[in-house]
Specification:
2 domains, six-stranded mixed barrel, 248 residues, RlpA-like double-psi beta-barrel-protein domain-containing protein-containing protein, membrane, signal, alpha/beta, binds 2-acetamido-2-deoxy-beta-D-glucopyranose, transmembrane helix
């Protein structure tokens, strides 16, 4: 009897978690965009090749990414991000130029309590959006003057967070790395069970990553747990730590 009770206590939640309360976001919409630093050649949570860092990449906030660990359905997807405005300064800054960038999602920005990647199905992040893209920047792939600014008025050039619009786009041919085979796909040395980075995911199950969390019955919303850390290869843990340090 006690064994049965324990069984249901521990197993029932796992079943619920296995479906994952991921955000079913529209193909086009608005989001926030922050930026974070990853080293050149770095293999982040999806396990995309190191050469992917030669082109614009981003981490996506966890509940939209679709996994709390390793790869998720967002891995490899490309989005056209267009800067709309900033609002952390006073007054909000509306650039007089239209700046867009096509990024490929290669990393996970872990869920946090209150940071930019804190959006869930029911809770917006501090920028009033459910989704955050954390751009790898500065990057050799992106001009240093990519972000518009007005230094004489604000006294700084880096607003840190932007309100953006996003469009889901085909990576081929829109992503800058589309013609470099080495920049597409996943690394093989971590094993194909722990990496997933399609060249051009369309959302069809045959070309889109599953959720590593769902596949392994890992909780969707733990911030950090020993079990999670042990469940994934070291390189991915490092990727998550990077995302965590710089992405929130
Ligand atoms: C990205 O968005 C901008 C602004 O709307 C647009 O001019 C550009 O053509 C778009 N790029 C792609 C590849 O969709
Ligand atoms: C900077 O902002 C001030 C105040 O809004 C404005 O008068 C000025 O034209 C702006 N300069 C640029 C380069 O946008
Ligand atoms: C972000 O842009 C959208 C679309 O223009 C707008 O509705 C929203 O108020 C903006 N959010 C902020 C915080 O500026
Ligand atoms: C992973 O690789 C092994 C050996 O190369 C192969 O048998 C297996 O089908 C692959 N699994 C997936 C999900 O691609
Ligand atoms: C996925 O399946 C669709 C039809 O369901 C097919 O047209 C497409 O070629 C398949 N893609 C891959 C990569 O196998």
């Amino acid at each position: 009897m006690l064994a049965l009770t324990l069984f249901s206590l521990f197993c029932a939640p796992l079943y619920v978690q296995a479906t994952g309360p991921w955000i079913d976001y529209p193909a086009d919409g608005t989001a926030t965009m922050t930026h974070y630093t990853i080293p050149d050649g770095f293999i982040a949570a999806c396990g995309c090749t190191g050469a992917s860092t030669e082109y614009p990449t981003a981490a996506m906030s966890q509940m939209a990414y679709g996994s709390s660990t390793a790869f998720g359905p967002a891995c490899g997807k490309c989005f056209n991000l267009t800067l709309l405005n900033t609002y952390t300064g006073d007054p909000p800054f509306f650039p007089d130029v239209v700046k867009s960038i096509v990024i490929k999602v290669t990393d996970l920005c872990p869920l946090s309590e209150a940071g930019w990647c804190s959006g869930t199905q029911t809770k917006k992040n501090p920028g009033g959006q459910y989704i955050n893209f954390d751009l790898a920047y500065p990057s050799a792939a992106i001009p240093d003057d990519f972000f518009p600014s007005n230094a004489s008025y604000y006294g700084y050039t880096d607003f840190g967070v932007w309100n953006v619009s996003y469009q889901t786009v085909s990576c081929l041919p829109n992503w800058a790395g589309a013609n470099n085979k080495a920049a597409l796909g996943s690394v093989t040395n971590l094993g194909n069970e722990s990496v997933c980075c399609p060249a051009n995911p369309t959302g069809n199950p045959n070309d889109t990553c599953p959720s590593y969390s769902d596949d392994n019955a890992l909780p969707p919303n733990t911030m950090t747990s020993v079990a999670r850390m042990l469940a994934i290869p070291t390189a991915l843990v490092v990727g998550l730590v990077f995302a965590h340090l710089f992405g929130t």
